[in-house]
């Protein structure tokens, strides 16, 4: 039986890729889900796993070729001649099936998500010699966006930890070894070199860089040693060359060297604590700075009287909870108000792609959430088609997963607009930063009683400042102000939302 290997989904708006590197050649045995090749798009690097175990057949798309989504890359021959034993796992090739409970089982890095190629080992919950149950949590990995828990693939004894806390590992790395019994523990050291050998070999051989990267280096006249590779085994990708070129052009590749710290006395230095930024914090810092450097960002402000929303919420919150099983909060009102305003001012729900403006005829609402490790923005898809109850349930579920570090990459991608509620922390007014490539973000703030002039009289009202940061390249001042006014009107008279006014 022959199985086809095809180009996987490459991501939103990505229609083609370049075959960067083949890790297998015709005739090689392959295991199910083993990485066969690496594709390079203009945004991310995508690894293509084997859809089935067998023997590598014909390679249809050679390195350097450009392929579209679902294009045929190669074939795999399944069956008796497919060398099934090696395809299962390098460290377990010689172990008979009847002795599965006694063999050494490798603990591998789980799937990290699309476009995520490496992670940092943050915490080991077990130490060498500990007994573990199947599916018991062994360690936690930290990626640019989420934390990933690694369960034990089998019950036994943790006999080896190959990636210590703080180590950076790629998507196919081995983390440790579990032996099923004392006999297996004794054989584990013999099995380890079998999996360690490829790493040593890859470190000692010449790494084949992506074809597009070679071309870019040749055109720019850049030496290979001047580029740091981010691909598999340190392979240089096209984006690495672009970063190296940008670093040379900006003459500021290392801010620490250009702007060293001010002198610190020995007494003060002894009381300082230096902690490496987490990968999530580094990503947050980079994305926010990129947003400022790219977009023509501007913020406009308004304020809203929350009297009617608070009265409506107080009147129906008990009945709402009884019927829908979730509390009625303010976020559903703001989400509905923003959806309403985005229909009238669609450029706030759009994004720039080169010289085009891409208008979204849907609303995937990002809800910024603070977590112990940093800010994340889970996305509620098709929020414009949801009821109040559906929105509240989605916000509660995403918020809980965000706090527990359980969000997947897919849950934080594809947003078209974002709401950030700094009011829960007591913020009275702020200027939120755009979440690229989005063109708008609404900042909510603290509800505070303030004296207001209403019909010629001074009355005390619960007021909230609103802030809309927007990309002035495609959103004009009129559109931004109109958006905030529509949000204000909908919240001050929530009946307008029911009437679609």
TrEMBL record:
Keyword annotations: Acyltransferase, Lipoyl, Transferase, Tricarboxylic acid cycle
Alphabetized InterPro entries for the sequence: 2-oxoacid_dehydrogenase (IPR050537), 2-oxoacid_DH_actylTfrase (IPR001078), Biotin_lipoyl (IPR000089), CAT-like_dom_sf (IPR023213), E3-bd_dom_sf (IPR036625), PSBD (IPR004167), Single_hybrid_motif (IPR011053), SucB (IPR006255)
Recorded coiled-coil stretches: none
NCBIfam families: PRK05704.1, sucB
Keyword field contains Transferase: yes
Species per Swiss-Prot/TrEMBL record: Litorivita pollutaquae
Cofactor field: (R)-lipoate
Quaternary structure note: Forms a 24-polypeptide structural core with octahedral symmetry. Part of the 2-oxoglutarate dehydrogenase (OGDH) complex composed of E1 (2-oxoglutarate dehydrogenase), E2 (dihydrolipoamide succinyltransferase) and E3 (dihydrolipoamide dehydrogenase); the complex contains multiple copies of the three enzymatic components (E1, E2 and E3).
Family recorded in the similarity comment: Belongs to the 2-oxoacid dehydrogenase family.
GO molecular function: dihydrolipoyllysine-residue succinyltransferase activity
Keyword Flavoprotein among UniProt keywords: no
Any one Gene Ontology BP term: L-lysine catabolic process to acetyl-CoA via saccharopine
Occurrences of domain Lipoyl-binding (ranges): 2-77, 104-179
Pathway named in the protein's UniProt entry: Amino-acid degradation; L-lysine degradation via saccharopine pathway; glutaryl-CoA from L-lysine: step 6/6
Residues passing through the membrane, by range: none
Lineage start: Bacteria, Pseudomonadati, Pseudomonadota, Alphaproteobacteria, Rhodobacterales
Domain Peripheral subunit-binding (PSBD): 208-245
Top-level EC class: transferase
Catalytic activity: N(6)-[(R)-dihydrolipoyl]-L-lysyl-[protein] + succinyl-CoA = N(6)-[(R)-S(8)-succinyldihydrolipoyl]-L-lysyl-[protein] + CoA
Pfam families: 2-oxoacid_dh, Biotin_lipoyl, E3_binding
Protein name, as recorded: Dihydrolipoyllysine-residue succinyltransferase component of 2-oxoglutarate dehydrogenase complex
CC terms in the record's Gene Ontology section: cytosol; oxoglutarate dehydrogenase complex
Entry's EC annotation: 2.3.1.61
Function in brief: E2 component of the 2-oxoglutarate dehydrogenase (OGDH) complex which catalyzes the second step in the conversion of 2-oxoglutarate to succinyl-CoA and CO(2).
